[in-house]
Specification:
Elements lengths: L4 H9 L10 H11 L5 E6 L4 H10 E9 L10 H7 L2 E4 L13 H5 L15
Parallel strand pairs: 1-2, 2-3
Helix pairs in contact: 2-3
Amino acid sequence: MSRHESRQKLATEFGATDIVTERGDEGVARIKNLTDGLGAHSVIEAVGTQESIMQAIRSARPGGAVGYVGVSHDVQLPGDELFYSHVRLLAGRPRCAGSCWPHRPDLERGDRPGPRSSTSPCPG
């Protein structure tokens, strides 16, 4: 899901077959339509607003997962809806922000990240 042309281009380079530009209920309906009514198995939420997190939860299929990274901004999760959706929420900050890539040749090569040292340019 993106409205940013540069991100859409990158997504297609990494294998995305569909780009969803709709938001809110329209975005959820489009995801459900693309997945034969099921919803996505895995959703990454990286915006942190009430609307974006709810769209991510509602776009996931029962048994699916939403991983959200970064800081949420005054988000309230409706407990009943989350409970009955059977969607798992996984939260945390990214291990390494984009600014760390030039300093981590192992990640650029695709190697599995090793333990961090105290001199790492990325916060642990």
